């Protein structure tokens, strides 16, 4: 069972994308995946939260024999990489710190899975958001919260890597074996989105992936933001002005001023 009137759910942002196919998934198949993982006959999914790229459902069962848990469905941003990196990051923190991170019971990042989108089933950490009760807390409890957050930050700061990027698990080996791989970052998602906005562009997701690291130093990381945008502009000869106009929010004065600068930067990087 699920708390929605339709067995298919879509992400609300899709309605504003003219001509785009919405990211949709099957709630009935999602419930079936939950039943399979916990080996139960029935369950109820109640929407707990929704953002631009995720929907979270709280899981409950009549026999109350399952742990407190949620199922989180992800929209198509960085297919496979994003969800798998999130899982690897949770597991790495659990292995290398004392920070309480939710257990991940199951996940599916295959593009042909029955649900229709990637998802993970994980432990629901008990508690309430601090901002909802902060004003009512006595000073001593506020101090305890801040100190605990500081201790967590110190533990995270001590984790060091030779390269920069996002964490992934090494496939087919012990779950404590991790590596740094392509970064999950907004600038690269915007570049991928640019391909969607201009579907005839010769630039592909595979081409953009090479700019996502891992990076040997901070300079390479920062330079990659510019490199990936220039790659999109440089390879789209016909609509170069349209791309710039979109990014500058139709500001013709700025467009005329900035256009030669982008040409020079593009020529310099070529």
Summed up, what is this model?
With 270 residues, the protein is an alpha+beta fold. It has helices at 27-38, 81-96, 130-133, 139-157, 186-197, 205-209, 218-234, 240-247, 252-269, and strands at 8-10, 24-26, 44-50, 54-60, 69-74, 104-108, 118-123, 166-169, 178-181.
Tell me what the structure shows.
With 270 residues, the chain is an alpha+beta fold. It has 2 domains: 8-123, 2-Layer Sandwich (Phosphorylase Kinase, domain 1), CATH 3.30.200.20; 186-269, no CATH class. The protein is built from 9 helices and 9 strands. Strands 3-4-5-7-6 form a 5-stranded antiparallel β-sheet, with helices on both faces. Helix 5 (186-197) runs parallel beside helix 7 and helix 7 packs across helix 9 (252-269). The longest helix has 19 residues, at 139-157.
Which helices and strands, and how do they pair?
Layout: E1 8-10, E2 24-26, H1 27-38, E3 44-50, E4 54-60, E5 69-74, H2 81-96, E6 104-108, E7 118-123, H3 130-133, H4 139-157, E8 166-169, E9 178-181, H5 186-197, H6 205-209, H7 218-234, H8 240-247, H9 252-269
Antiparallel strand pairs: 1-2, 3-4, 4-5, 5-7, 6-7, 8-9
Region (Disordered): 1-21
Protein name: Aminoglycoside phosphotransferase domain-containing protein
InterPro entries: AGP_Transferase, Kinase-like_dom_sf
